[in-house]
Amino acid sequence: MNWTLGIYEELGIRPIINCCGTWTIYGGAVMPEEARRAMYEAAKHFVIIDELHHKANEIIASITGAEAGLITAGADAGLAIATAACLLRKSEVAQQVKRHGQYVLETMRDTIQQLPDTTGFLDEVIIQRCHRNVHNHSYRISGAQLIEVGKPRSSQTEPFTTPQELEDAINEHTAAIAYVVRMEPGGLQLPEVIAIGHRYDVPIIVDAAAELPPRANLRYYSDLGADLVAFSGGKGIRGPNNAGILAGNRELIELAAIQYYPHMGVGRPMKVGRESMVGMLVALQLYASQRDEDDLSQWNNKAQYMVQQLQDIPHIEVQHTIGNGIQDNIPYCKVILDETMIGLTASELRQQLLDGDPRIMTIYHENVLILNMRNLMGDEHTQIVTRLREILTR
């Protein structure tokens, strides 16, 4: 292959300008140069993976304020091995790990590798019905049953869940309570869930995959008392798209680690290579050293530029907004079409942008084209404006 050409063009794949944000299906975020260089260097040498995990533990704990941490193969893998740890928390494995650490890998291998067979282990994870989403499958990979409480989000009933409903679901089989931050409005709030869980000695697993920014959230959930918190590495942190971090209680992190790569527990297939581990650590340290205000300033400048350059086009309204969904604080540019007058629907506009050159991926809802500023690089925002003007003034 001629590496001087774009590798994707060499493969016959046209890259996109990503106006959708840090969606996994488009590759997450763009890693900073420091993380890319670190991955290149990491690929040139071998290490003992457990030693790399040990160093990652120290760095994650320092940045998040949690007792311990683990690099995972994305946030979903973090949820899966967090659940596995909670299933084992009252087993003989947990007692031996507390006494001897990971030395139990040899002496209790058969028991460690029993999952997803939960015979003799805790096997229930409680979740509010209003927190159900496609990622909940991660809790079940290790063999756990999801026990739903409260009302579904579609019921339009307030509140969706009562404290009593959560308490009534806790029993001798309860391994953990799952909490999805992105689905928070309408359900029980995290401090109340933590208080109830801890009253009954039940740990709380927090899905905070997409909750960065703000950077303060790296510490916020652990400071509240959450026992295990999973973050995506390929979204706000701008690490590799196949990486993430799990932060939390030291004993639970140790139980998660023996279920995880490079060991042969239920998390063994969720391998994250040494290159991605190093890239994740560098990206995390860099992210923690920077400021939300600087990111927001860049994104806001691009959104404002788009508004200024497009607002004179007839039959559209252009808005610079903050947020486009539950707990989303990212700047957007929204192009609202008078579809009848302009003779073009938002869906058709999206398709023309995707089919053109450069190839631009956007979101639309009804008659609104939605442009997320988060992943725009260099002068891509000016290229988007050029294409929009070409299409909308044709």
List the helices and strands and how they pair.
Blueprint: H1 7-10, E1 17-18, H2 33-42, H3 49-64, E2 68-72, H4 75-87, H5 92-100, H6 104-107, H7 109-112, E3 124-128, H8 137-140, E4 145-149, H9 163-169, E5 174-180, H10 190-199, E6 204-207, H11 217-224, E7 228-232, E8 244-248, H12 250-258, H13 274-289, H14 292-310, E9 316-322, E10 331-337, H15 339-342, H16 346-355, E11 360-361, E12 363-365, E13 368-372, H17 380-392
Parallel strand pairs: 1-11, 3-4, 3-5, 5-6, 6-7
Antiparallel strand pairs: 2-8, 7-8, 9-10, 10-13, 12-13
Could you characterize the architecture of this molecule?
This protein has 394 residues and is of the alpha/beta class. It has two domains: 122 residues, Aspartate Aminotransferase, domain 1; 257 residues, Aspartate Aminotransferase, domain 2, CATH 3.40.640.10. The protein is 41% helix and 16% strand. The chain is built from 17 helices and 13 strands. The protein has a seven-stranded mixed beta sheet with strand order 2-8-7-6-5-3-4, sandwiched between helices. Strands 9-10-13-12 form a four-stranded antiparallel beta sheet. Helix 11 links the parallel strand 6 and strand 7. Helix 2 runs antiparallel to helix 13 and helix 4 packs across helix 12. It is globular. It starts with 6 loop residues before the first helix and ends with a helix.
